[in-house]
Structure to design on (175 residues):
């Protein structure tokens, strides 16, 4: 593992946590607490009239408490990128990665099949080396959506790029 490796925690917000996704929160807390390099969180905000509303009839996450990070992660959230797109790597996320000279990005969070996937693919296309931590990611739409996301991630960024938290290595003190 590279010393310029960052952990990106995608959209672990109250509005995305339900019975299908809640189980990953303790795993993500464990990773964040033990991570030795930079850690950044993303927080999704839906805007009135957005494509999410117009095209897929999704009208959630306009403001607190839905947009708040889960309580368990708030103490660790020193760097938070607010976004209104699927990917962490909008202008602000790209600037942070460039400023901190990230070369590897370990991605976890919610939803595996949407925002986690798009973040990892964007990292790949930006020339970073992405890894997705499968057991620290979930979909609030359920296990089938999570598994579909992992399948597509293996095709998009490579089979070796999808890991478990236990295989993350030296950047995480507890593993």
């Amino acid at each position: 593992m590279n010393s310029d490796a960052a952990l990106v925690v995608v959209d672990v917000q109250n509005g995305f946590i339900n019975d299908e996704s809640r189980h990953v929160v303790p795993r993500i807390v464990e990773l964040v607490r033990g991570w030795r390099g930079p850690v950044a969180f993303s927080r999704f905000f839906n805007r009135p009239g957005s494509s999410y509303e117009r095209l897929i009839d999704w009208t959630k996450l306009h403001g607190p408490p839905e947009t708040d990070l889960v309580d368990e992660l708030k103490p660790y959230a020193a760097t938070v990128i607010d976004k209104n797109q699927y990917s962490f790597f909008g202008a602000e996320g790209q600037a942070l990665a460039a400023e901190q000279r990230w070369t590897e990005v370990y991605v976890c969070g919610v939803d595996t099949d949407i925002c986690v996937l798009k973040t990892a693919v964007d990292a790949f296309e930006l020339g970073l080396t992405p890894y997705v931590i499968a057991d620290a990611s979930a979909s609030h739409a359920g296990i089938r959506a999570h598994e579909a996301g992992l399948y597509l991630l293996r095709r998009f960024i490579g089979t070796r790029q999808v890991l478990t938290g236990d295989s993350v290595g030296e950047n995480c003190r507890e593993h």
About this structure: The mean pLDDT is 94. Residues 143-157 form the longest helix (15 residues).
